[in-house]
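From the thread on structure requests for the teaching lab: each student submitted one protein with a one-line request. Submission from student K.M.:

"Model MFS transporter from Streptomyces guryensis, tokens only."
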Amino acid sequence: MSTTPPPQALTKQPGTDENALDDGALSWLRALGPRGRRAFAGAFGGYALDSYDYFTLPLSMVALAAYFGLDSGQTGLFTTVTLVVSAVGGAVAGVVADRVGRVRALMITVITYAVFTVACGFAPNFETLLVFRALQGLGFGGEWAVGAILVAEYASARNRGRTLGAVQSSWAVGWALAAVVYTLVFSFVGDDLAWRIMFWTGALPALLVIWMRRRVHDAPEAAAVREQSAQKGSFTAIFKPGLLRTTVFAGLLSTGVQGGYYTLATWVPTYLKTDRGLSVVGTGGYLAFLISGAFLGYLTGGYLTDRLGRRRNIWLFALLSAVCILAYANIPHGANTLLLVLGFPLGFCMSAIFSGFGSYLSELYPTAVRGTGQGFTYNTGRAVGAVFPTAVGFLADSWGVGGALVFGAIGYGLAALALLGLPETRGKELA
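Reply posted by the TA:
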């Protein structure tokens, strides 16, 4: 299977309309050209379905705990295992992307997370479910980094932040789809079967892979540079003196942002049902505000990362996210209208900070090890950041879920500090 167009296309960034320099709302999409737009569609769909498959677990957490008789620490372990194993999957997928191409690696990751999400629905006990969820993490860990690089190598430096921010927004689309399916399934089916149905619907990504196999290709110019490099996919290269500092601080940045994010993504549904006493439909309504804020946050953050720069955008939303978490967790009982309203800025800020990640991490590494560097740092951040939702799980019984959410704010503080060791990369050409 070929994932790159013929060599004669290598004279310029393929599929890119270099005259599309207008500032319209969709100028970044027009500038990608036909091949770039297909790559965008593949990455967007892959990440949306990645999100959908991920959120089947947090949304089903209360039903799973009741079915298997689990405590808060054990349910938190599901998320920890997923994120820890995702570090392995992300690092491996990054190396594979540098060695065999972005599109092939992307299809492998999508198939992996889809197969094991479905398998979770057949788990007979806690231990089996934990193993299947860990294996799902292998594909989950690699998908975002590979898809982001695929699109970043098509996008111009001028529009890269907005383009990757739009790809990132697909996470909110998948999250919303999962929330809708959760509301319908748990409203009409008993909890003991409903959580299994949620996991079985994770087979949807298989349709995307069939389309990608025929329609999506690597960016030829970047592929040519990668193929000609003697160090392509070299894991040791990202730890050599020229890149070691970047790898360490990018890993810390990813740890802080994802520690904060996954604390919220994992525990807010449980917080709404247990601490705030909301029904299934009520929880879905509150999540709608959170998710709509997240979608707009991704798009806005993508625009701001091109205007303000990568570092300033992350700094701004790290501060705002920490403030929103502390406010959200300390809303008095009975003030559920305020809880509903505050969900929008919370979702907005914790998502806007992610919008610059696809462009920023892609720009920090050279083409030959871009997949390796981005896959490792982003997913190591996921693995170490998994400590945060686990800490919330073990402290929930004594502090309450709301009180324990403070760990999310600590994560965003770490992200802000990590930026002190990284350069600004706005305007950098990738190939």
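TA comment: The two ends are 24 Å apart (CA to CA). The chain has one domain: 30-214+232-421.
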